[in-house]
Amino acid sequence: MLEQLGQIEAESWIARETDGGDAKFLHPQQRRQWLQALADPILAEMLCATILILDDRPIAFCFDLDNGPRRYGIAGSYVESYSDYHVGTMVNYRVMADAIAAGQAFLDLGAGDSGYKREMGAANAYELHDLLFVRNPLIAKAFSRVWGTELSEQGPRARSGSAHHANRASVWSPLVRVAGAFGISAALTNTVIAVLNG
Fold first, then answer.
1. What is the CA radius of gyration of the chain?
2. Inter-helix orientation angle 28-38/2-10, to 10°
3. CB-based contact 12:75 (threshold 8 Å)
């Protein structure tokens, strides 16, 4: 199943337009990380994939996490040559139908919307903020210059080593590229809060 997800990503816009940093299943190292997660029986029960297959060829998927009454979208993609047929949206509708059938009251489709989420009836529910926590004050000071926020202007919390800025591209993009070079999934890199021990 993970290889099918990787196959779809390999034929998606992610493989063509990016360095693969936004992929979740494209590289063997990324799939190994998911295999490790699936070794946990609780996580294995919560994670689910919906795959659209045409003539034995996987062409679109959604990968989600169920948490009681809520289903959270982790990743989704489609084979780019089928984009005119909206196969990614088809899979999202199937996920929605499955969530309703399972009695779930909330489906989180994640951030960003090219319009199809609004067409499905989605509404903005919350804002996402990227936070970088750094324990070592010297390292925090160095990151704050790149991050765009001077720690000295933020009071006691800043002196303990936290910094935040709405523009993640300047810091996260290089970090994601470095992590990708070592086979670390961008999903994990972007989702987990970076903690640097001094």
1. 19
2. 150
3. no
Strands 57-67 and 47-54: antiparallel
For residue 190, the surrounding DSSP H or E stretch is helix 186-191
pTM beyond 0.90, yes or no = no
Most confident of 4-18, 40-54, 102-116, 142-156: 40-54
Across-strand partners of 196? 134
- The SS3 of residue 151 is helix
CA 99 to chain CA centroid, nearest Å = 20
HSE-up (13 A, CA, CB side) for residue 15: 16
Angle at 99 between CA 126 and CA 85, to 5 degrees: 90
**pLDDT tens-digit map of 45-69:** 999 999 999 999 999 999 999 999 9
The DSSP call for residue 85 is G
CA 163 – CA 114 distance, rounded (Å)? 30
Whether 26 contacts 46, CB under 8 Å:
no
64 has which bridge partners?
A: 48, 73
d(CA 137, CA 156): 12
- End-to-end alpha carbon distance in the chain: 40
